[in-house]
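hey
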């Protein structure tokens, strides 16, 4: 009995560690576009997201019930199975964070859970119909729906072209971006925080602490909300950089459209109990926003790497979860070995990330090796000036027109030569 009690405590702590990694892994979902467009400063953005994630955790328990009583059969599930599932999910989260890939923490958790359950009790332990209807179908539909909605919304926002009000319009969209980012954070709390609640509740059911079908206890809701909020506050800067600058270059109109579209999809799915990936929803919306602006582009090389990560998440986390469960079935020494491998693997990934760190100082820099603020302080060089001179003027009232006007004010027009003036030094900037 003491062993089971200790193991249950280990599982609860491990689940909260996963929730923490989920927080910093998915901070980009809410705040990447807001940071990349300059609507909010990086630290302010992650602090706001953390608070709203915590609030969202208390708004619904439908997704938690799907996980605790839908993905796998509760009867006969050992506590070690849940521990093995969490190990697979955590290691995949950390690996994709190291690579800066916005993969799905939700699918990592599902993959680990499915792999561990199959290794423990065979395929009969998995509810295939629930996986198809509430995991796989939303995984395909959510990014498509969010992307199409975002593309249409972006096209509509760019129809606002009143030249005298262009600056005010851009400012208004930045304010709207802040509000929509808050909505995404709230939606993230209602969906992703509940996944950890469901896992902890499943562990409590497996140990007979609560009855099958029960809602998560209040202490489970509070601890899961705090863990994901803390992870969000620390910020997953690598993934924020990929989402904000790696997929496409966003303007305030696009950021507002992307965040509003993804928040709507996430909130609707949470209400229906669909445990979709907020990462995939937001990524789809960001790509839709990139395609919705005339002249906008999506960096398909980055998108392809992201798609590959999405496809690998379920099977990769499942294989790790199955391997971990194979070891835990060997007895106490197997559980200790799995825990040691988790700690060692996490430490190795963390040390690798320190070779080229990404933080709030360089998350929006064009060159990661450049010091913070270097991109903003770089003066306009002769190439930039030449392009600005020969390029056709952008449509009146567009954001590009405002930027062009600002550029002209910073580059003095050449006046008549002054014979008394000393010769100008050759320009160093390019």
């Amino acid at each position: 009995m003491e062993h089971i009690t200790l193991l249950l405590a280990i599982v609860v702590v491990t689940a909260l560690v996963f929730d923490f990694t989920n927080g910093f892994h998915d901070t980009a979902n809410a705040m990447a576009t807001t940071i990349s467009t300059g609507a909010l400063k990086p630290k302010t953005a992650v602090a706001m997201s953390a608070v709203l994630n915590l609030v969202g955790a208390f708004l619904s328990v439908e997704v938690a019930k799907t996980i605790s009583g839908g993905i796998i059969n509760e009867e006969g599930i050992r506590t070690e199975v849940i521990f093995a599932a969490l190990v697979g999910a955590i290691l995949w989260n950390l690996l994709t964070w190291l690579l800066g890939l916005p993969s799905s923490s939700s699918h990592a958790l599902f993959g680990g859970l499915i792999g561990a359950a199959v290794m423990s009790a065979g395929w009969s332990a998995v509810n295939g119909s629930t996986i198809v209807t509430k995991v796989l179908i939303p995984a395909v539909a959510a990014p498509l729906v969010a992307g199409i909605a975002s593309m249409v919304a972006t096209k509509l926002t760019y129809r606002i072209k009143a030249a005298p009000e262009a600056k005010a319009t851009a400012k208004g969209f930045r304010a709207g971006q802040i509000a929509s980012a808050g909505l995404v954070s709230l939606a993230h709390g209602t969906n992703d925080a509940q996944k950890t609640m469901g896992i902890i509740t499943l562990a409590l059911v497996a140990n007979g602490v609560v009855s099958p079908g029960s809602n998560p206890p209040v202490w489970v809701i509070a601890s899961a909300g705090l863990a994901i909020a803390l992870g969000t506050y620390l910020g997953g800067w690598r993934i924020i950089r990929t989402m904000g600058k790696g997929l496409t270059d966003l303007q305030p109109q696009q950021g507002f459209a992307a965040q509003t579209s993804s928040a709507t999809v996430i909130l609707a799915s949470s209400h229906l109990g669909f445990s979709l990936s907020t990462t995939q929803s937001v990524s789809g919306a960001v790509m839709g926003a990139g395609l919705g602006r005339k002249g906008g582009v999506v960096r398909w090389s980055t998108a392809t790497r992201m798609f590959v990560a999405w496809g690998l998440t379920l099977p990769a986390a499942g294989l790790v979860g199955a391997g971990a469960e194979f070891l835990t079935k060997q007895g106490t020494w197997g559980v200790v070995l799995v825990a040691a491998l988790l700690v060692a693997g996490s430490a190795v990934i963390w040390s690798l990330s320190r070779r080229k760190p990404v933080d709030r100082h360089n998350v929006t820099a064009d060159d990661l090796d450049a010091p913070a603020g270097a991109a903003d302080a770089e003066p306009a060089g002769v190439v930039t000036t030449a392009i600005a001179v020969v390029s056709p003027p952008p449509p009146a009232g567009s954001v590009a027109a405002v930027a062009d006007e600002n550029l002209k004010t910073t580059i003095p027009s050449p006046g008549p030569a002054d014979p008394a003036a000393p010769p100008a030094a050759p320009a160093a900037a390019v």
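Confidence is low (pLDDT under 50) at residues 369-430. The chain has 16 helices and no strands.
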